[in-house]
């Protein structure tokens, strides 16, 4: 089982001169597999020469306010996926995608939020913003950096949301063509009134580093600062995995088979795993619709929480020490260290 899905492009929206939004409709019978949480992303299969590749795009739609799923793609010089989507994808096309995934999502929509974005990094925080306005009662401030006014994605929609939620939502724009690049001092001044909030940051790497360092300098605890990273996948995660390799004995504790209890989408299943290969492959072969994307330990799409038992990770470039302490693991890189596991994808 690859876990791949089909989505029809219901509408293409030209947001700015170099950013397009795709409104997507699940194909009939697959609607439940497209459920998502605010801040998550979608993996789309794109052509690459004579083969295929995959690219991940954050959902800017909200599961609480929008009927369709929407991703916004900003053209990047030499970008394989962004240029193909902006140049070739039209209404009525059918795309191959993986189910929504990712950990850049609030555990609760109550409380106050500081949302920080630059350029197309606004897409996942837009999803969080819209859901928090509907399901939460707290105040939300968006600090949003762009090159110029014409580069501001969702400018009109943001104006409408501010007008509709006076006193709850404020948007602070930073235009580098007018104000120059933000510095640590200027960012600290902008963020200083909001250090008691949950912060979600998305944008180019240097911008996120500046923001996280500034918030740390203001005394904001690290467990209240959340960042989302853009990345390009090295392989094709849509490809079928081969049959599980036969092994002499297993990698499970004391050579025993591993019993895995899985909580996913409100349902509990039990899978028997020989212990060879990785946890994600065992789940997919058993028919479990587990989320995933890169299969490289780099994107957090397959992240789940270990409630009982223990695993090791072959690779991990995305979970930090706090994530690991909270029990988060990457199923695509997990090997068993105990004979029984209980894991949950349900938050």
From TrEMBL:
Pfam families: FAD_binding_6, Fer2, NAD_binding_1. Gene3D superfamilies: 3.10.20.30, Nucleotide-binding domain of ferredoxin-NADP reductase (FNR) module (3.40.50.80), Translation factors (2.40.30.10). The keyword Ligase does not apply. The keyword Ion transport does not apply. Its cofactor is FAD. PROSITE patterns: 2FE2S_FER_1, 2FE2S_FER_2, FAD_FR. Keywords: 2Fe-2S, FAD, Flavoprotein, Iron, Iron-sulfur, Metal-binding, Oxidoreductase. PANTHER family: 1,2-PHENYLACETYL-COA EPOXIDASE, SUBUNIT E, NADH OXIDOREDUCTASE HCR. This is 3-ketosteroid-9-alpha-hydroxylase reductase subunit. It comes from Actinocorallia aurantiaca.
